[in-house]
Amino acid sequence: MKDNNDLRPLGKTEIYISVLGLGAWQWGDRIIWSYGRNYGENDVRQAFEASVAAGINWVDTAEMYGMGQSERLLGRFIAESSAQVIIATKFAPLPWRLSHQSLHRALQSSLRRLQMKAVDLYQIHFPRSPVSIENWAEALAEVVQEGMARAVGVSNFDERQMRRAYSILAKHGIPLASNQVAYSLLNRKVEFNGLLDACRELNVTLIAYSPLAQGVLTGKYTPDRPAPGVRGSMYHRSYLARAQPVIQRLREIGEVHGGKTPAQVALNWVICKGAVAIPGAKNARQAQENAGALGWRLTAEEVAALDEVSNEFSSGRQ
Ligand SMILES: NC(=O)c1ccc[n+]([C@@H]2O[C@H](COP(=O)([O-])OP(=O)(O)OC[C@H]3O[C@@H](n4cnc5c(N)ncnc54)[C@H](OP(=O)(O)O)[C@@H]3O)[C@@H](O)[C@H]2O)c1
Fold first, then answer.
1. Ligand 1 site, residue 282, Cβ cutoff 6 A
2. For atom 21 of ligand 1, which residue has the closest CA?
3. What is the per-residue pLDDT across 114-168, written as a single tens digit (0 to 9) for each?
4. Protein residue closest via CA to atom 28 of ligand 1
5. Active-site residue among 16, 35, 39, 65?
6. Residue 38 CB contacts under 8 Å (≥ 6 apart), including other chains
7. How many other β-carbons are positioned within 10 Å of the β-carbon of residue 64?
8. Is the Cβ atom of 43 under 6 angstroms away from ligand 1?
9. Nearest protein Cα to ligand 1, atom 40
10. Which tens digit of pLDDT belongs to each residue from 268-277?
11. Whole-angstrom Cα distance, residue 98 to residue 287?
């Protein structure tokens, strides 16, 4: 760890996480990320090792990522490593999962793949489900009480949904540790819909996913060189054209900080907002670069300048 300021408690728990975690959706996912085509197990093992070596002390995965493959790979890497790594995974409340028992069974399967007795953070992946939020929150409380999870969180919950989960858990004396949602310079919804403020008020850690806008904020995708595959249609040419002034500002600010890259400045901006970020990495090079967001901070003026250029990006939305 480069700097103690890079460690924060996870919500009201006693678990200390680095302000950057490592996202592991890429590990095993063929549909969006083309795992197995131009990168594979060795590459993601090196991403894991490089991240841990740089002071990142936690990894975010999910039972859905690569249909269990991400958890399987992570379990293998942890078994091979001597480092203490905090593990966050997720339960998918799929439409046919209707009982508390289904959450218990899913967690047992995750623990088997991860080769662990308990997970550090267990999250409900999304709120849409035939089962109520209250019911799933009760099931989360049970797995904490049974020692299968040290802490629990939610993901993709809006403010109202988060408050519902929070109050059920509070009745059991269990804090809602986190809410994992999309947040980046190109997607600041959480700043305007009350979620970020509610997280601050309740002391729930906001975990920012897609903090690099799935690679766009690295600056490597341009209108002439869009992202490959599915992302090509998500981040079309006009979107990439509108994003260029943001990337240019990231470059300029990075220069002032001794040549920090757009990715490093974009991640630092998320951290300065009080959230923690979990950039995904496919290999050691990406992981090392992203870890370069640790150990320093943007000034308040630089954060404001980035807010301004990002507002211009948003106001140009068609
Ligand atoms: N809870 C949810 O619903 C949810 C949803 C999405 C993500 N997540 C979590 O959040 C994590 C991160 O989000 P994300 O993967 O969507 O997006 P992201 O972190 O914004 O972008 C990751 C992608 O950007 C590229 N990249 C990363 N670092 C780079 C670098 N230094 N230089 C160049 N390219 C780089 C890589 O793809 P290329 O090399 O192919 O460009 C990488 O796969 C996921 O792994 C997952 O754990 C959660």
1. yes
2. 214
3. 999 999 999 999 999 999 999 999 999 999 999 999 999 999 999 999 999 999 9
4. 286
5. 65
6. none
7. 18
8. no
9. 33
10. 999 999 999 9
11. 38
| Amino acid symbol at 121 | L
The residue type of 107 is: L
C-alpha of residue 23 to centroid of ligand 1, in Å: 7
Are 222 and 216 spatial neighbours (Cβ–Cβ below 8 Å)?
A: no
* pTM greater than 0.90 (yes/no): yes
Binding site membership of 187 for ligand 1 (Cβ less than 6 Å): no
Nearest to 182 by CA among 120, 219, 137, 234: 234
Q: Which domains does the chain have, with CATH numbers?
A: 4-315 (3.20.20.100)
CB atoms within 10 A of CB 188: 18
Choose one of 29, 35, 218 to mutate for the ligand 1 pocket test, by most ligand atoms within 8 angstroms of C-beta.
Answer: 218
Residues 199-238 pLDDT 10s: 999 999 999 999 999 999 999 999 999 999 999 989 999 9
> Residue 245 is which amino acid?
P
> Catalytic residue at 65?
yes
Surface-to-core class of residue 61, CB atoms within 10 Å of its CB (0-12 exposed, 13-18 middle, 19+ buried): buried
Q: What amino acid occupies position 198? A: A
